[in-house]
Design a protein that fits this description.
Length: 245
């Protein structure tokens, strides 16, 4: 009859095996699964911000972006709350959202209407990394007269991007920043920036910045004189030395 004897593992070896097992288990638990890997991908969301700064005599309308899952979720879940603070999220794809702001600054009545349309469906021939853009549009009336009627963000033609609009009621002027498809800065014509100007600013109003006036021709550099040997440090003529001697 064969007897089976229990295998006795030394205490030190048992401790090593236990630690190795725990480490392997911890590494396995640390490895993210498919869903967790998907969560690790940082999300982003766009918004349009309306800021009234009466102390500085201006109103700013600009685009913005929030990055990170927590920020995106907060912007999405608290859309109405943010809208009351002048931050209008581009997160709800159910349909168009329209927002109105009216205020008086420096004796001017400024009425702003912002519309946010969700992106269209992705075209079959679009690049894999190309995502349809949100369409945001702003109409600004000053003292009842329309001053801005343009995109705020990417234009529907994708030819320009308007980053921001600034109104200076105290100064009686407006301004806007934009760039074209190639990233070149665009500006507004000088005759359009006055509040009382009849020109309505649209996407087509932006133009490339005019080149600066040609600077006057500078004088050509003076020719460099090549010194012959002995001209830089001339020696005393030998004849004069001999005469003195």
């Amino acid at each position: 009859m064969r007897h089976q004897f229990p295998i006795v593992v030394p205490a030190a070896l048992a401790a090593v095996l236990t630690l190795a097992g725990c480490a392997a288990s911890a590494r396995a638990e640390d490895q993210p699964g498919p869903k967790e890997k998907e969560k690790d991908k940082s999300e982003s969301a766009e918004y349009v911000e309306y800021r009234s700064l009466p102390e500085l005599g201006q109103i700013q309308i600009s685009t913005g972006v929030v990055r990170g899952d927590v920020g995106v979720r907060r912007l999405t879940d608290r859309r109405e709350e943010f809208a009351q603070r002048g931050v209008y999220p581009c997160t709800d794809k159910a349909g168009r959202h329209t927002y109105h702001r009216t205020e008086t600054m420096a004796g001017h009545v400024i009425d702003t209407t912002l519309t946010i349309d969700p992106p269209e469906e992705k075209k079959p021939d679009a690049a894999p990394d190309e995502e349809p853009a949100w369409r945001t549009h702003v109409v600004v009336r000053i003292d009842g007269r329309k001053k801005f009627n343009c995109s705020i963000g990417d234009s529907p033609s994708d030819e320009i991007t308007v980053y921001g609009i600034t109104l200076f009621p105290e100064d009686g002027t407006v301004d806007a920043s934009a760039s074209d498809y190639d990233g070149y800065e665009l500006v507004l014509p000088a005759e359009s920036v006055k509040i009382d100007s009849p020109n309505v600013i649209t996407d087509d109003s932006f133009e490339e910045e005019a080149p600066a006036d040609d600077a006057p021709d500078e004088k050509p550099p003076a020719p460099v004189k090549v010194m012959a040997p002995g001209e830089l440090f001339p020696t005393t003529p030998r004849l004069a030395v001999e005469a003195r001697a």
